[in-house]
Structures are given as C-alpha cells and as structure tokens.
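Page 42, continued from yesterday. The earlier attempt failed because a stray header line got pasted into the input along with the sequence. Redoing it now with the clean sequence only.
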Amino acid sequence: MALYVMKQQVMTLIPWLIAVYAAICAVVYFGNRLFMYFPNQTRAAPAEAGLDHVKEIEIAAADGVTLVAWYASARNDKPTILYFHGNAANAANRAPKIEVIQEHGFGVLYLNNRG
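This time it went through. Structure tokens are written below.
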C-alpha cells in the first residue's frame, strides 16, 4: 500500500516539475537580453581615464550611427590590437588593460559598443 501511495505522489510531482522547467525556459528565452547586456552609455575622453597618449576617434557607420573608438599607435614595429571588450562597461573601465597593452609596445584600437 505504501508503495502505491509513493508512486502516486511521484506521478503527481512529475507534471509540476515539467511545468516549472517550462516556465524557467520561457523566462530565459524571452528575457535573455536582460540577463546578458547592460551597456554603459557614459562617454569619457581618454585623458579623463588617465590615458593622455590615447586619442578618441569617431567612425561614421553606413547606417548613420557614430562609433567611438580609442586609438594609440604601436611602437617598435609591433602590431596594433583590435580590442572589443564584450558586454557592459565602456572604454574608461578598460583603461588599465589598455595601459598594459601600451606598456608592452602594442598599439590598440578599442571600439566602444554601438550607441
């Protein structure tokens, strides 16, 4: 008798587990942009971030959006690194990394997110 009651409880629990799983999947599917992308739209000059040797460039995209990039030239025939930082933040938050790249003689072209 106890085995029958336990089976019945498990069979009642399975649809609830499926419903909870489906709800989690729906939230993740429809709200994924809220979870992964928090852009910082603050615009700062390189000098404000302590990078006096870096200059700011504006690039006009074909769709009319102006892209903002920071550029510093390379030394001693080293290459220039094209730096895309990923989600969130902006160039000012990455100033220490840009400085390390420069200390090693590499150039850097750091492109901020659109908008």
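Notes: The chain has a mean pLDDT of 87.
Reminder to self: strip header lines before submitting.
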